[in-house]
Specification:
- By secondary structure, the protein is of the alpha+beta class.
- It has helices at 9-46, 111-128, 139-161, 168-173, 252-277, and strands at residues 58-63, 71-78, 81-90, 97-102, 108-109, 180-181, 188-195, 198-208, 231-234, 237-250.
- The strands form two sheets. Strands 1, 2, 3, 4, 5 and 6 form a six-stranded antiparallel sheet that branches.
- A hairpin with a 2-residue loop joins strand 7 and strand 8.
- Helix 1 packs antiparallel against helix 5.
- It is found in: Cytoplasmic vesicle, Secretory vesicle, Synaptic vesicle.
Length: 287
């Protein structure tokens, strides 16, 4: 079988000229695109009020579920923090209606949003370090920059798409449990998290397992959403989840941010692919 012929001197000169154009012109065009897109993503997270440096505006999100009306409520988001919560819970057994809200002096930081915003800021910082006057000399230099930017964007996206898995004792010990007035009953746990573009509230109703219970006690491990029947130990008690209520609301600007992340990652990968194509023309790596 015939082997592929090496490029001639003329072909090599044309390829080298095309590669220089790629490094000097197209790379910077892509970087400008990325800067513009990520600036828009950053503005979504900033959510300015009056002026860019003003406080983030408050947004109310009505929580609902197509499967149950046991839990209804409104969560108020201010930037990356829940500043207010107003929740009604209808107890399944006796239809008793419970109402609980955040204490006025409390806010709950949503670490997922804060982390995603920080990763976007880091990606922008990496891009801004290569202004229009900067001359890329090798393809490897471009690949290294794209890998670094893609790492930050992937981490930002993952913080929104992959909520933390928590054990029930971790949820019980979280500060969120102690933020409500009146105080939550001892047989309730709550958790709030971001999943993709949604703000999610989960309420767990518990019952105590008696010492003479014939149930085989198996503590549940970490999970984003625990199911009825999950067991755990808290203090001197053994508890079991009897009911789980999950309600959620879409945050439109988080959806925008996820789209910006996807488009930016595609641009980075396309530029990497163009750089890598040139390596197939040489047996050695001129970049």
């Amino acid at each position: 079988m015939a082997t592929a012929m090496a490029p001639t001197a003329v072909e090599r000169a044309v390829l080298e000229e095309e590669f220089r154009w790629l490094l000097h012109d197209e790379v910077h065009a892509v970087l400008r695109q990325l800067q513009d897109i990520l600036k828009e993503a950053s503005l979504r997270f900033t959510l300015p009020g009056s002026g860019m440096e003003g406080p983030a505006r408050q947004e109310n999100f009505i929580l609902g579920s197509s499967g149950t009306d046991q839990v209804k409520g409104v969560l108020t988001l201010q930037g990356d923090a829940l500043s207010q919560a107003d929740v009604n819970l209808k107890m399944p057994r006796n239809n008793q209606l419970l109402h609980f809200a955040f204490r006025e002096d409390k806010q709950w930081k949503l670490q997922q949003i804060q982390d995603a915003r920080n990763h976007v800021s880091q990606a922008i910082y990496l891009l801004n370090n290569r202004d229009e006057s900067y001359q890329f000399r090798t393809g490897a230099e471009v690949l290294k920059l794209m890998d670094a930017v893609m790492l930050q964007l992937t981490r930002a996206r993952n913080r929104l798409t992959t909520p933390a898995t928590l054990t029930l004792p971790e949820i019980a010990a979280s500060g969120l449990t102690r933020m409500f007035t009146p105080a939550l009953p001892s047989d309730l746990l709550v958790n709030v998290y971001i999943n993709l573009n949604k703000l999610c509230l989960t309420v767990y109703q518990l019952h105590t397992l008696q010492p003479n219970s014939t149930k085989n006690f198996r503590p549940a491990g970490g999970s984003v959403l625990h199911s009825p029947g999950a067991m755990f130990e808290w203090g001197s008690q053994r508890l079991e989840v009897s009911h789980v209520h999950k309600v959620e609301s879409v945050i439109p600007w988080l959806n925008d941010a996820l789209v910006f992340f996807t488009v930016s990652l595609q641009l980075c990968q396309q530029l990497k692919d163009k750089i890598s194509v040139f390596s197939s023309y040489w047996s050695y790596r001129p970049f």
